[in-house]
Write a structure and sequence with these properties.
The protein is an all-alpha fold. It is about 75% helix and about 0% strand. It has one domain. The protein has three helices and no strands. Helix 1 runs antiparallel to helix 2. The longest helix has 25 residues. The radius of gyration is 23 Å and the shape is elongated.
Length: about 80
């Protein structure tokens, strides 16, 4: 996401001919978009994004279970008040 933001800022600066970016080639200005695309391809192919999604789901599930146990008056597995 940072690469997309950087690409948009650089593209805007190049279009408005602002600062040092005005003298850069369009290849350099648009390179963050290519890097972002490469990152997405790698993260999907390696399973990195799926692994992070599964970890978030597991954390939400464990928090929900813990919250439900607290609401039922249970402290944890095998423990009674």
């Amino acid at each position: 996401m940072y690469l997309l933001g950087l690409g948009l800022v650089l593209m805007g600066m190049k279009f408005l001919e602002f600062g040092l970016v005005a003298n850069l080639s369009w290849i350099w200005v648009l390179s963050p978009f290519a890097l972002a695309a490469a990152w997405w391809v790698w993260s999907d192919a390696s399973g990195f994004s799926a692994k992070r999604a599964m970890e978030r789901e597991l954390e939400r599930k464990n928090a929900r279970i813990s919250r439900n146990r607290d609401n039922m008056g249970m402290q944890g597995k095998g423990k009674k008040r």
